[in-house]
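Q: Hi! First time asking for a complex rather than a single chain. Here are the components, and I think there are two in total. Is that enough to go on?
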Amino acid sequence: MRHYENLVIVKPTLTAEEIQASITAIEEIITSNGGEIATTNPMGMRKLAYPINKSERGYYHVIYYTVVPSAISEIERRFRINEELLRFVTIKYDTNREIAAWNYLVTKAKKSAEAPVKTETPVVDDKAPEAEVPATEAPAVEVPAVEAEAVATEEAEAK
Amino acid sequence: MSEKRKYKKRFCKYCEAKVDFMDYKDVAALRFSLSERYKIMPRRLTGNCKRHQDMITIVIKRARAAALVPYTVTRKTVVSAPFENLR
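A: Yes, that's all I need. Here is the structure of the assembled complex.
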């Protein structure tokens, strides 16, 4: 298993639900090829530095995952067929230093993914009676994170 | 050449900050090694060491492929605010 990162740019002309559907389809491509998604980082709609296929904007989404190196060609082939993608960039994290950077990026992405949850909880608290909801949500978010880290360390040990 | 005067004192900024890894998505960090027209600045002007210059060239080329940084800015393709995402 090798560490990879994929940045995909989805067409801006789609609606929000279609974008989410295409992103889940992209993640499905990776998991169906034996990949384990560590975390994802939606960068959101951004202006492109230069137009790609006449579109000025794009929805950026970053996926961190581990997969067998031989599966990458198949994943990229499927990405090329997908017409909803403007661009994809696959980055390989091979050396120990790069893997350390990969782990750092994953934890950073997880923190940024958890941060909006933290900002949402006070809003829920203001509404008062639903104070139990964040309490139940918070461990549910933490537990998979701990498991994923445990998996990452196990893989590192296996190597 | 105003650019030359700007980089008179030569030392590697990345060595000083002990940068081990650069992220191509962090566009603000790449700005130092890019010229006004988004060319990669040569080592003789920035004072980067060879190791970090090699790293930054790879990272900038990745960022260009991901449309985070423009390839070039010419008079025909002027980018009004190429780093507006940073604000």
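A: Chain B is about 40% helix and 0% strand. Let me know if you'd like any chain examined more closely.
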